[in-house]
Amino acid sequence: MTGRPDDAALQPTALTPAWPERAAWGTAPSLRAWQTAAMKQYFETQPRDFLAVATPGAGKTTFALSVAAELLGRRIVDRIIVVAPTEHLKLQWAEAAERAGIPIDPTYSAGKGKTSADFVGVAVTYAGVAVNPLAMRIRAERFKTLVILDEVHHAGDALSWGEGVREAFEPAARRLCLTGTPFRSDVNPIPFVTYQPGHDGIPRSAADFTYGYAHALADHVVRPVLFMAYSGDMSWRTSAGDEISARLGEPLTKDLTNQALRTALDPQGSWIPSVLAAADSRLTEVRRHVPDAGGLVIATDQESARAYAKTLKQITGELPTIVLSDEKLASKRISAFSAGEQRWMVAVRMVSEGVDVPRLSVGVYATTTSTPLFFAQAVGRFVRSRSRGETASVFLPSVPGLLGFASEMEVERDHVLGKRVRDEDDIFAAEDRLLEQANQGESASDELGQSFEALGSEARFDRVLFDGGEFGHAGEVHVGSEEEMDFLGIPGLLEPDQMRELLQQRQHDRARKQQSAMSARADEAKVAVDEVAEVATHEQLAVLRRELNGLVAAWYHRTGTPHGMTHAKLRKECGGPAAAVANAQQLATRIDRVREWAIKKTS
């Protein structure tokens, strides 16, 4: 079954559109419509294997534990095994199950053997299963066992993981597979997932029940997401010594795009501090309406995460929570942040999937990992809805791939196993598959760190993506400008229709202001030209040349750029002949340009 349940009989009677207060981490006293529909289908068909695909924040945990409780109550199963991607998620599952009346041991390991009789089940990781699948198999054989495979696409992360999961849980009485993100794009089949040939003959995963982001958004189960995209000029030096400059977001080769992205995310540049400051301004606005709203920065590595945290402390005066690894201390930090009111958390990867921090409202996507799977997992941390009108804001680089993912939030995906070789004459099948795999590597390679050096970066507000549309202002929008605040200052509580209307209105109002300002500047320029023409004597020209030469000399002392190169650059940007024969208007234009450079460098 796919889509939104429309049967009135399946609508919940007591559940509000958002989670009840105590259910943000676990179960709710009543089920949502999609959970009721999925459970009805499950117990009507009584399948051994069931795959439920539901968007992050929709309540997969509640659905799975409701199924588990019902199966235990009917004596269809006697034991539960939960398999999760990380150690922290094991604890999260155990806490949620405890509230549902199903005690689960999150400290169990395959070599531990028996657990306390107080527990009905255990929680393990995929890596733990791969270490000793035989021990898990014995446990699954001894009792009538329900195995819940959370974020089941992780079973394809490594060949040993998939084989281990299949070996360990093949004898299980029931297997319930869950995922909330687009499936993988490799050719490794995921254990216990059914594949059916599509219209092109290529096998695709077939979910038993799907509840996509679009349906969850219409049901007010998840928040709409406001994507704030930032571009800017980047410069770096290659291993050959060549200096390259490019604008983030412009059409570039894959390697140049990756290098421009890495330059933007360099903590020593200006791009990331500007974006972090903008994100903190947005968080301040959101907290006017949602006082406990928090922000999350997703970094590429630990070194960058620490640097970003230091920058945030300078911006906010408050040290952010830093989560660097999948350890017990990290889990405690996440739990403390979730229960507190601290503004920011900085993490590398472990908060990207499955971890529930319902108060997260603002995010900064500051990682070079840019696959559709990881992007969906990351954005999923911000979409969990607690009350009507909440909107998530995610800041991201203006990279074509990321902008494409942002505009396709509502697209439902399946796991495609790859191109089928139809006959032996299809000699290019292997090459096509290798090319496809190469194109899937959307993360900036670590090897690039040895082949280039970031020289500088500058941020510019680019556009807002919302509900499949794009909104912004014509021309360059500087960080900290009124044009940027048109979007950063959007209220923290708005319904999707209100958000769309406000974005359109602000874009329209700013376009009218820009048009009026351009007309006024044109009139002023005409008057200035007339005035210059009246007094353009040799004395006036001499004064202008002295002023220009003085500014060029000051620019030399400030930057080390020779006078001749500066004059040549001014002629290239402003037009006209050499300064010795330029007219008054041309000299005045160059004087203004040098002053613009000075202001820009100071800022």
Can you offer a commentary on this structure?
With 603 residues, the protein is α/β, with parallel strands linked by helices. Helix content is 43%, strand content 17%. The protein has helices at residues 33-45, 60-73, 87-99, 126-131, 133-142, 159-169, 213-218, 254-264, 271-289, 302-316, 328-339, 372-379, 400-407, 429-440, 482-488, 496-535, 538-559, 563-574, 584-602, and strands spanning 49-54, 79-84, 104-105, 121-125, 145-149, 174-179, 195-197, 203-205, 209-211, 225-238, 243-248, 294-299, 321-323, 344-347, 360-366, 392-397, 452-457, 460-466, 469-471, 477-478. Strands 10, 11, 12, 13, 14, 15, 16, 17, 18, 19 and 20 form an 11-stranded mixed β-sheet that branches. The protein has a 7-stranded parallel β-sheet with strand order 3-4-2-5-6-1-9, sandwiched between helices. The chain has a two-stranded antiparallel ribbon with strand order 7-8. Helix 1 (33-45) packs parallel to helix 2 (60-73), helix 5 (133-142) packs parallel to helix 6 and helix 17 (538-559) runs parallel beside helix 19. The longest helix is centred in the C-terminal third of the chain and has 40 residues, at 496-535. It starts with 32 loop residues before the first helix and ends with a helix.
